Amino acid sequence: MDDDTKRLTETAERLISAARKAGADAADAAVVRSIGRSVDVRLGKVEDTESSESEDLALRVFVGQRVATVSADVHADIDRLAERAVAMAKVSPEDRFASLAPKDRLAPHDGLDLDLYDPTELASDRMVEQALALEEAARAISGVTNSGGASVSAGASGLVLVTSEGFVGEKMRSGFSRSVSVIAGEGTAMERDYDFDSRIHYADLDALEEIGRRAGERTVRRIGAGKVPTGSYPIVFDPRVSRGLIGSLVGAINGAAIARKTSFLMDKMGEMVLPASVSIIDEPLLSRRPGSRPFDGEGVRGETMFLVEDGILRNWILDTATAKEPRPILQRPRGPLLRRRLAILDQRVGDAGRHVARRSDRRDEERHLRPRADRPGHQSRHR
């Protein structure tokens, strides 16, 4: 444990101690440190450089079946923060399902390393050079007439989660990204598009020239687009669109939406919701993947499971509270969705193999890396 992690852990433990002293029956606390830098260029000139560093904390307290959460930066008065959280909880409505995750669901202290941190540091002048080269590669494509700019960013975050049940966990994550946007055409016929890449490890990033070429070619292909006659046609979804389709389904099987009866899939457990050739698998422990992590916002370690198997809905995404809801379909906690893989079984004649297409969790139009950590008790969000 390095000095920064030790300091964050001590802060989280002080939060728990202060909460118990203030009258909380149980509590969990998260402390996160984030750093990030980015460079933006346009038309061969530097437009903006940014550097940020922050340390924040969140405390969730339970008083009986009442719960409240507060957040602040690490310079806040911990005792006063805990007292305020307990006071808020005492006037909150009771939630008979609210609780910390059971001890037998907490991640073990086994030092699991998912290779989510790359210590590579990029000098500012090197980031500027890369952003300029990225834009130049996009503008070199025939038909590109202007630039929306290019961006290079790098950052990292470290989180410590401590609960009054004795759980102590820490994790670190790095991130590097490159993006560029260009314009093709003139006047009212102008079109804009972009391309980007975002990775945990710097060495895994696509080459600057490749990203620039893709951005330029995508933009130029938009020129002269027209409408097709009304009719029935096969549809091929661009990966950027298909990611959104999976995200919509994931939101619909979130346990909170099911418990509140606000999901269109609330009565579809065990039924066909997608074509039989499609399966969606939660694999939170894959190494070096953007959605993987050793534990979630409650300290629970995820497990591989089918959300949709051969088109049939098999599981909800639950946290501890929603798993206690009195519905037969809401069983034991499954933990937040940490990594999705879209498995498509290619059923073309003569092809007996299984082809797996992994869904990238990279955000479209990402221009700056802004690492965020799980708040205690909250499910991870996916776009």
User: What is the domain tally?
Assistant: 3
As a percent range, the share of helical residues equals: 10-25%
Number of helices: 7
Mean pLDDT across every amino acid position: 85
The largest beta-sheet arranges its strands as 3-2-1-4-5-6
| Secondary structural class | alpha+beta
Could you say which overall geometry the principal axes of the C-alpha atoms support?
Answer: globular
Q: Note the gap between the termini.
A: 32 Å
Oligomer: single chain
Order of helices and strands: HEEEHHEEEHHHEEEHEE
Number of strands: 11
Largest sheet: 6 strands, antiparallel
Proportion of β residues?
Answer: 25-35%
Radius of gyration from the CA trace? 24 Å
Low-confidence stretches: 328-383
Give the helix/strand layout.
Blueprint: H1 3-21, E1 26-42, E2 45-63, E3 66-73, H2 78-90, H3 124-139, E4 144-163, E5 168-184, E6 191-199, H4 208-221, H5 239-252, H6 255-259, E7 278-282, E8 305-309, E9 312-313, H7 320-323, E10 340-344, E11 355-358
Antiparallel strand pairs: 1-2, 1-4, 2-3, 4-5, 5-6, 7-8, 7-10, 8-9, 10-11
Structural overview:
It is a single chain. The protein has 383 residues and is an alpha+beta fold. The chain folds into 3 domains: 3-34 and 48-105, PmbA/TldD fold; 124-160 and 170-221, PmbA/TldD fold, CATH 3.30.2290.10; 239-358, no CATH class. Helix content is 22%, strand content 29%. It has helices at 3-21, 78-90, 124-139, 208-221, 239-252, 255-259, 320-323; strands at residues 26-42, 45-63, 66-73, 144-163, 168-184, 191-199, 278-282, 305-309, 312-313, 340-344, 355-358. Strands 3-2-1-4-5-6 form a 6-stranded antiparallel beta sheet. A 5-stranded antiparallel beta sheet has the order 9-8-7-10-11, with no helix packed on it. Helix 1 packs across helix 2 (78-90) and helix 3 (124-139) runs parallel beside helix 4. The chain is globular. Mean pLDDT is 85; it is low at 328-383.
